[in-house]
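Render this sequence as a predicted structure.
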Amino acid sequence: MDSRAHIVTDRHAAQAALSLKAQGRRLEAEKAQLALVFAKKERQRRIEEEMKMLQLKRKQCELVRMREAEEEELKAIIRLESLKTEADFKLAEARKAAAITDL
């Protein structure tokens, strides 16, 4: 009986060792799965962050273009006002000269 008990005990020990190995493999597989999920989430976060940065850069470029367009429009208005003032001055001089010659 002792040899049978020893065989049964050896089998139980072997099964327990296999069970522990299987549990270890399952644990490692779960760890790997969690690492994969984490890596995917981190990748998605980075992609979203990059997209936000690109949107900010686009908005900044758009604002710069708008500012430059406004500056050009302001310069054009100033030029037109200057030309109008010059034309008004020349008209006033021409009227003055005409009034002098009429006297």
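Summary. The chain has one domain: 1-75. The chain has a mean pLDDT of 90.
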